[in-house]
Design a protein that fits this description.
globular; 3-stranded antiparallel β-sheet; alpha+beta; 9-stranded mixed β-sheet; BirA Bifunctional Protein, domain 2
């Protein structure tokens, strides 16, 4: 009997999830069992704002801040890095409760998923994740799935090619997964900065266009001369760095043509093949070298098609992001196409590539990583709705 048949005949979320784990195991993914109680620091530093504000925190007797795991990606990654397999290709599956404050929804819920570490064939690995995610929804009886995809690496490549001031590069890339913040940044940059708003406007403008290291040294020296040692617990260097960042932001440092290019980029959406064509046209028109990032997207789409995925049905958008700071490339979500799009409902399955996370967690060398999570209750409910509709 296939895993799909087992799932369809099983009763309850746990049985369905166990059958899903069986199918992951058949694909070579070993089940991981990370602890429920985790160090809070990685989640506070590396996760998105939505997860940070939903954590359940506590402190042990030694003063270490801990949390109930809000998801399983970071715990599985930490266990992998602490194992003898660290740095080698390895795949893990998981199933267990996670804990997040979610308003009127239960704060404890089941999550299953896959994490794949160490594979250098990134485009093929990305395609495999989407294929396995679609198999998971199919196993629960769902055929009509809305596939939403994006790629953080494309935005990063664009910002790098525009050669912006470092402060704007950091701010825009950081805010990519925070749609409200990114929109505010773009709107702020669109507004012209009227000169003479205050007596030090010229100083701010000069700092905005100067070498960062030299400007930081100047501000630090001025504060030291004034006798400032710290304010609110911040050192002189930290205050100077913050002042320099604000001088650049207030100085309207982003050129008008760069703004137009960013807006055009963020407006690209459609099926992946059409989006690739639009991206190549943008790169040619703006004379920007985005070839490597676009080639990676095109290669990924090819591997997806080779796995039998109808890429014409995918909704690709350059502005798509999942709200998690550690994503560095391909991102995706699968939604029940029978429900209203954009209604705030959590995805059935979601994931992506996070190549930078392993070094942030302590790996001495970069390790490619990609994976996805399955919201078991949401998928079970959608599967039941489909079954009841078919029976009727």
């Amino acid at each position: 009997m296939t895993a799909t048949a087992v799932v369809r005949g099983a009763a309850g979320s746990a049985a369905w999830a166990d059958a899903l784990l069986l199918s992951f195991a058949q694909g070579g993914y070993v089940q991981a069992h990370p602890g429920i109680l985790q160090p809070a620091e990685p989640f506070l530093d590396l996760s998105g704002e939505d997860i940070r504000k939903s954590l359940y925190l506590t402190t042990d007797a030694a003063g270490e801040e801990l949390c109930l795991r809000p998801d399983l990606t970071i715990p599985v990654a930490r266990d992998y890095l602490a194992s003898a397999s660290a740095g080698k290709p390895a795949g893990f599956s998981y199933l267990g409760p996670v804990f997040r404050y979610r308003g009127g929804c239960p704060s404890e819920f089941l999550q299953a998923g896959i994490e794949s570490f160490g594979r250098q064939d990134r485009a093929a690995a990305d395609a495999e994740m989407l294929a396995l995610a679609l198999e998971a929804t199919s196993a629960f009886g769902l055929k009509n799935v809305d596939i939403r995809t994006g790629d953080v690496a494309l935005f990063t490549a664009l910002i790098d090619a525009l050669n912006l001031y470092p402060v704007w590069r950091r701010r825009l890339i950081k805010d990519f997964n925070r749609k409200v913040s990114l929109t505010e940044d773009i709107e702020r940059l669109t507004l012209s900065t009227a000169p003479g708003r205050n007596e030090y406007e010229g100083v701010l403008a000069a700092l905005a266009g100067s070498d960062r290291k030299a400007a930081l040294a100047l501000v630090t020296d001025l504060m030291s001369i004034a006798g400032t040692t710290n304010v609110g617990g911040r050192t002189v260097a930290e205050i100077a760095d913050r002042f320099l960042e604000q001088s650049t932001l207030k100085g309207g440092a982003l050129p008008r043509d760069a703004l137009a290019i960013i807006k055009r980029f963020l407006g690209i959406a459609g099926d992946p093949d059409e989006s690739v064509a639009q991206l190549r046209a943008l790169a040619a028109d703006a004379k920007l070298d985005l070839a490597a990032a676009i080639d990676q997207l095109e290669s990924r789409v090819g591997f997806m098609a080779a796995r039998g995925i109808d890429t014409k049905l995918m909704r690709f958008s350059t502005s798509f992001g999942r709200g998690l700071d550690y994503y560095t490339g391909f991102e995706f979500e699968l939604h029940d196409a029978g429900k209203t799009l954009g209604n705030g409902v959590e995805p059935l399955v979601a994931g992506g590539r996070y190549d930078g996370l392993m070094t942030q967690l302590g790996s001495p060398t970069p390790i490619p990583a990609v994976g996805f999570s399955v919201w078991i209750e949401a998928l079970t409910q959608s599967g039941k709705t489909v079954s009841e509709g078919s029976a009727a």
